[in-house]
Structure formats: C-alpha cells, structure tokens
Amino acid sequence: MTVAMLGPEVSWYLALSAFLFATGAFGVLIRRSPLIVLLSLEIMLNGANLALIAFSRHHGRGDGQIFAISVMAIAASEVVVGLGLIVAMSRKRIALDVDKLNVLRG
Amino acid sequence: MGNFLVWVVWVAAAFGCLGSGIAVVSFSNPFYSALALIGNLGSLAVLYLLLSAEFVAAAQVLVYAGAVMVMFLFVIAYLGGEADAPWAGGPTWQQFAAVLAAGALFVEIIVVVGLKAGGRLSHQAHVTRAFGSPAAIGRLFLTDHLLAFEITSIVLLVAAVGGVVLGAHARRGVEWGSATRLPTEPAP
Q: Chain A, 67-106: which have a CB under 8 Å from a chain B CB?
C-alpha cells in the first residue's frame, strides 16, 4: 500500500531550506562571538538536511535520509571540537572574538 | 480536510523555523540564541515528519535538540554568556557585505534549483508506509551504505578523542601559564 504526499510540494521545502542556509551564513559572517558562529553553523547544516530529506521524499528513496543522519553525526563531532576549542580559548584568557583571533599560536 | 490540516501544520512549522532562525542570529545574548535554536530544531523535526522521515525526526529531537543543545547550554553557562551587540555603533562595511553575501547565496540557490529541477518538482513519488521507518533506515545503513556507517563511527571516535585532548591541553596550559607567568603580567 502506498501513500501520496499531502500538503505543500517539495519546492516549498527547498525554498525554506535555502532561506535557512542564507540566515546561517549571515550569522557566521556578521557575529563576533564564536559561540554564536557555531550556532549559526548548525542552522546552515540543518538547512542542508531539510533539502536532503525533501529530495529523499521527492524521489521516494531513503538514501537522502541516510545522508542526513550522517550529517547529524558530523555536526555533533564539529560541536564537540568547536566547544572544546572555545573552552580552551577561555581558559587561556584569549578574548572570545573571532575578529581578534587572527594568529595561530596560543 | 487532511490536506488542509497538513498545510496548517506546515505553515506553523515553517514560520517557527524562520522566526527562530532569525532570532538565533540577532539575539545578543548567546543563551537566548541557543534557546531559539532549540525551537528551530523542533520545528524542523515537524517538517521532517511531514516529509515522512519519522526516524530522522526522532533522531533530530533526541540527538540535536536534546544532547547537542544541552552541551551548548552547559558551555554557555560555564563561560558566562558574554553578550556582544552586533547592531551597536551603526552599520559597518562588514555588516553591509554580510547582508549582500547572504542575499546572494539565497538568490543563487533558488535560481539554480529552479533552473535545474523547476518543472520536475511537482510530482512526488508514492511511497509505502515503511518509508523512513527505523527498520528501513537500518536496512539501508547495513546494506547499501555500510561504508558511510563505519566512517561515521570513526569520525565520532576521532571527535571524542579530540575533545579529550583539547580539554587536557587547556588544563595543562593554565598550570604552566601560572607557573611561568612573568611578574609584569596581572595575576589571573
């Protein structure tokens, strides 16, 4: 037994995902606090995830959902390393400002 | 009737998604930004449910809105959540360029998707009720996408080791720093 898709077409989901991606990119570019840059990165990843799942539903294949779950795992790893870096920065009393953080040696 | 209900839920979830996304970027306090991101992830999970991706929606709520955001909130509480005011002091060339770049990205994505797939997006494939269920996802992961599954596990392991190494280095750095601190530097 098969079911048809109710509600809006996939193109609406794609427009929403494009807007989310652009919002996240805007946050990454404009904010100085590395914490909010990480949060904006999460929005970008979620916009991409929404597009993957929308295309997965469009084609009726599960591969897009597999990709989305892998992206989720990568995002979790990225958050672990990013938050570790931020905590290490604050312990070394480096200012939490991505504009001032322009040399590699701690 | 069912179609109308789905539309209502979709519009509510989409506006929740857009509003909380803009809120994450514009709040000056990181704590409020993180709370807004939880709302964003929750409304995205509703959209995943409408796209019949039940397992991904559940994983989104459990892993993202649950575990990852709790970690974020802990770190923000630990660091004190310093507020930076992004809109203070009038518009700079950097903010102008950021608006321009984000707008260009949005237009670019819309144009490319419209050109490449515009006419073919209106007919969705019919799927069985098992589409997106944990059983279907698990079967795909263990048959067609076994390599992706294994590589993901290695990436998670590397990230865990990296987190531990970063934490250990930071602690040692503070001890060394306080032992070899020059007398001219202010004490922590």
A: 67-70, 72-81, 83-88, 90-93, 96-97, 106
Could you read off the pLDDT of B73-99 as tens digits, one per residue? 999 998 876 666 666 666 788 888 889
Here the ipTM equals 0.90
What is the tens place of the pLDDT at every residue in B31-83? 999 999 999 999 999 999 999 899 999 999 999 888 899 999 999 998 876 66
- Partner residue opposite B102 with nearest CB, options A3, A25, A79: A25
Of A8, A15, A69, nearest to B110 by CB-CB distance is A15
The residues with which B127 forms a beta bridge, in sequence order, are A3
CB contact under 8 A, B166 and A84: yes
Q: Are A32 and A62 in contact (CB under 8 A)?
A: no
Dihedral of CA B58/A19/B28/B11: which sign? negative
Which residue, among B15, B17, B134, B2, has the nearest Cα to A5 in the 3D structure?
Answer: B2
Look at A58 and B125 and tell me if their CB atoms are within 8 Å: yes
Give the side-chain half-sphere CA count within 13 A for B147: 1
CB contact under 8 A, A40 and B25: yes
DSSP string, chain A: -EEPPPSS-HHHHHHHHHHHHHHHHHHHHH---HHHHHHHHHHHHHHHHHHHHHHHHHHT-SHHHHHHHHHHHHHHHHHHHHHHHHHHHHHTT--S-TTT---S--
